[in-house]
Amino acid sequence: MITPELPTEERAVGIAERFLGEAVASCDRFATGLRNWVYDVTGISGASIVVRMCDPRHREELAGGRYWTSILAAAGVPVAAVLASDVEAAHPFLILERLNGADLGTVITSLSAPQRRSIATDVADAQRRVGRLGVGPGFGYSVNGVTGLVASWAAVIESEVDTWDRHIAQAGVVSPAWVGRARQALFTISDQLDGIGPRPFLHDATTKNVIVADGKLQGIVDVDTMGFGDVRWAVALTRMSLIAADQPTDYIDALMEHLMPAEDPRIVSVYTALHGVGFLAELGQRFNRPDRAPVVDDKARIRLEHTVDQLLASVGGGRLSRSPQR
Predict the structure, then answer these.
(1) In Å, what is the CA distance from 322 to each residue of 8, 69, 244, 303, 319?
(2) What is the mean pLDDT of the chain?
(3) Which of 33, 81, 115, 165 fits as disulfide partner to 179, beta carbons 3.0 to 4.6 Å?
(4) 216 with 118: CB under 8 angstroms?
(5) Vertex 233, ends 228 and 237: CA angle to 5°?
(6) What is the pLDDT of residue 323?
(7) What span, in angstroms and rounded, lies between the C-alpha atoms of 254 and 127?
(8) Which is nearest to 311 in space by CA: 247, 258, 240?
């Protein structure tokens, strides 16, 4: 089997030069993102664009980005515009509007509490607009609202836990015992999962893909797939990201206040603990950087294990006298 050529900076420059009609002054790959190759490109005139490329085997996801950008923009959700695309090319790409600003997670500590609350209000509004698009025919993540969906929200989460199980086994960085504890915590909310419907939500609008400048939301990026299920899954992922980075979580308090003011917050706590296991499963993975050897900071790993241990213990995911080691 022939492995397709993966995206490169040189290809990003070529795509940008053809679109801009001028030479490129700078081309820098964004540090975030596990799936695509995304480049911040500036032409010699100062014009700025974003070039997103993918493994050719995953071109349908770029097509999904083009599709959902159109749907979301029509619904009033602030998204980066697609300026050009060719998802059928040998090296599929989208050219996107370059939003001014940076990911929420990189600037959140520099924001005031009122600014964090304001951004949370705007993100909650975007999620509500998405939720009004109408229920889907199934649960999960879809590039077009039809394919890739399954019969229940519980099955979606169980599939994610199965993926974490494989990643942990492959990397050998943390103990497989974390997965058993995740399943134990998941069991405590199994009855609640049955009542969740397939409502659309922005599953990746977390501490990344939420672009902020001057203390205000500028827009949301990376909308290749739409989530169908429980928006609290995205809220909890954001919460875990902030906890893991030791960043302020009042943003989550505001987000929950606007999205779920009368609901029992316990399910968000369980989801947060589950995502903690997902973070542990990422340790030692190469993802879309096959040329870079994974580096695991043992101090950071131990700190994360301790945090996840506490989160799991607080929601019925078992207890340990010490965090499991490698």
Answers:
(1) 43, 46, 18, 12, 9
(2) 93
(3) 165
(4) yes
(5) 130
(6) 46
(7) 14
(8) 240
CA distances to 12, 94, 120, 208, 229 from 84, in Å: 13, 6, 30, 23, 31
Q: pLDDT tens, 62-88?
A: 999 999 999 999 999 999 999 999 999
Give yes or no for a contact between 41 and 14, defined as CB atoms under 8 angstroms apart: no
CA-closest candidate to residue 226, choices 148, 124, 162, 121: 148
Q: Do 43 and 22 meet the contact criterion of CB atoms below 8 Å apart?
A: yes
What does the alpha-carbon distance between residue 122 and residue 78 come to, in Å, rounded to a whole number? Answer: 10
Residue partners of 195: CB distance under 8 A and separation at least 6: none
- Kindly report the backbone phi and psi dihedral angles of residue 102, in degrees, each rounded to the nearest multiple of 5, phi listed first: -145, 165
Task: Name the H helices within the chain.
Answer: 9-20, 59-74, 104-107, 113-131, 153-171, 177-187, 190-193, 232-244, 250-259, 266-282, 298-314
Q: What is the average pLDDT across 276-291?
A: 82
Contact 121, 254 (CB under 8 A): yes
Q: Which of 171-180, 229-238, 262-271 has the lowest mean pLDDT?
A: 262-271
Q: Is the pLDDT of residue 324 over 60?
A: no
Q: d(Cα 144, Cα 261) in Å, to the nearest integer? A: 30
pTM: 0.92
* Inter-residue contact 250 to 270 (CB < 8 Å): no
Gyration radius from the chain CA atoms: 20
Q: Which residue has the tokens 């909890």?
A: 236
Q: Which residues on neighbouring strands pair with residue 49, listed in sequence order?
A: 41, 97
* Cα 217-134-65 angle, rounded to 5 deg: 50
Model confidence pLDDT, tens digit, residues 6-48: 899 999 999 999 999 999 999 999 876 667 899 999 999 999 9
